[in-house]
Amino acid sequence: MTLLAELVQTSEHIAATAARLGKVQTLAAYLRTLEPDEIEIAVHFLSGSIPQGRIGIGYALLEDAAAAHATRATLSLQGVNSALAEITATQGAGAAARRRSLLRSLLARATPGEQSFLARLLVGELRQGALEGVMIEAIAAAAGQPVADVRRAAMYVPGLGALARVALLEGAEALGGRVRLELFSPVAPMLAQTASDTGEALELLGGTAAFEWKMDGARIQVHKAGAEVRVYTRALNEVTGSVPEIVAAVCAFTSETLVLDGEAIALDRLGRPQPFQTTMRRFGRTVNVAELAEELPLSAFFFDCLHDGGTLVARGGSERHDALARSVPEPMRVPRLVTSSAEAARAFYEAALAAGHEGVMAKSLGAPYEAGGRGASWLKIKRAHTLDLVVLAAEWGHGRRTGKLSNLHLGALDPATGEYVMLGKTFKGLTDAMLAWQTRALLERETRRDRHTVYVRPELVAEIAFSDLQASSRYPGGLALRLARVKRYRDDKRASEADTMEAVRRIFAAQGGQSGA
Ligand code: AMP
To answer: DSSP states of 123-147 as a string?
Structure first.
């Protein structure tokens, strides 16, 4: 039986260690001491999450519940986990009081150090999301497996806790066995980083790259086996019933088994893209689908092929595209140009914009498909500078906005420190509906407040348009957004998928700026 106190000590030790290797070694040594049933719990806690997902405990409730404490550490990992499971399961009439009393009894059994750890864990302030990479290395070290194998398996095993269990308990063979794409079991889509222009993208990708139109629709992953076709969203929800025309089109492809990655988008009669919100009307609808499909037909444009008779995930981008070109007719593929010419890339980008699209994606020709990864082998280039930033806090509005949380504090994760770095504030671009929604959503995530500002768990991601970045002594990253405006909330993205300080610094450098940070 492992005590919570040992985990808290490990967590403190990691936080105090600057070197990545040191963190990995501490974590790996700790993971090796755990009993089988403790592995998943410990990996969750150390990653700043709990096995139950959201528990809905806010700062105020915690303060109220932490009246008494223990003087000796006796709480076990299993004990804490069972208490959290019971709190989560307590729903319905009278639940609030019962949850409070369960929480009080848990905290009364914790020492002050453990209480502070649990409080940060429960309100989501452990901020160790950036430790994912470190955790994967530690799991590999603890299991005595190559990091690359564990990283690959991570694409197919849901969650780090489950990954650690497989690696530590089942060993190399099981890990290898998981490294497989299965039909009708969707994998997390590969994500992109940001480049400031086509020239920079070419350089970052080694001089030659594929450029593709970036269409602003909905990501789809389509699996086919014979006459059976299923369609999944970026969040891996099945939406087969919402998109009959895409199902019919893919069904007609001659390849027997296929997994395709692409974008579904509503085009107008002239073939120009409709706004993102219009495309989204087609998803989530379960009644009168045929009627809506007639009024607002969707087109599918595929850009990757992960399986064609066999898995292609580990193959390079060019090879996967060759498979795509063999299986999918050209009108259903995203327009693409492979070039090493900066002028040709630029002209291709201009053509994408002229056709009404968001910009282009630049892709490495050799890199494998990184399911769920935001690697540097796909780079997006958009006309307006936009960044997907995390909301860290919001200020109460004035005048017409009194009673609403309005001015957003925005930040990006610095992967080096695991901290969110604030880059600026904005209340521009928010509609009344967005204000009402964000006030509710932010209050649900409140961690503390002062007179003007409510601070929140860093969970909400907003797409922010801005004119440029400025050197600034006011903000800790030394950079500030100019003329920032909210474009939309990215409810399809988690904070760990938002842009990081690396992208921000690259945009600043491309502007000709010298980063002070
Ligand atoms: P973003 O969501 O802004 O990070 O950009 C990535 C998204 O662009 C992907 O998830 C796709 O939904 C979309 N996209 C549009 N065209 C392409 C393309 N040619 N290749 C990859 N992704 C694309």
So the answer is: TT----GGGHHHHHHHHHHHHT--H
Neighbours of 274 (CB within 10 A): 18
Pair of tokens at residue 359: 């910009």
Residue 129 has a pLDDT of 47
Is residue 333 within 6 Å of ligand 1 at its C-beta? no
Which pLDDT belongs to residue 405? Answer: 97
- Residues of the chain falling short of pLDDT 50: 129, 515-517
Check residue 178 and give its pLDDT: 66
pLDDT for 62 equals: 85
Reading phi first (left if > 0) and then psi (alpha if -120 to 50, else beta), residue 148 is in alpha
- Is 409's C-beta closer than 6 angstroms to any atom of ligand 1? no
Pairing of the two strands 193-194 and 257-266: unpaired
Give all strands (DSSP E) within 196-352, no chain letters.
209-214, 218-225, 228-233, 257-266, 298-308, 336-339
- Is residue 382 annotated as part of the catalytic site, yes or no? no
Ligand 1 closest atom vs CA 213: 19
Beta-bridge partner residues of 209: 339
The finding on whether 463 has its CB within 6 A of some atom of ligand 1 is no
In the prediction, which pLDDT does 516 show? 40
Q: Check 214, 224, 363, 380 and give the catalytic one.
A: 214
Q: Is 456 near ligand 1, meaning CB less than 6 Å away?
A: no
User: Three-class SS of residue 492?
Assistant: coil
Pocket-testing residue among 380, 390, 491, 492, ligand 1, by greatest number of atoms within 8 A of Cβ = 380
For residue 369, the model assigns a pLDDT of: 93
**Residue 316: predicted pLDDT:** 96
* Helix%, strand%, coil% for the chain, nearest 5: 40, 25, 35
> Measured in angstroms, how far is the CA atom of residue 212 from the centroid of ligand 1?
10
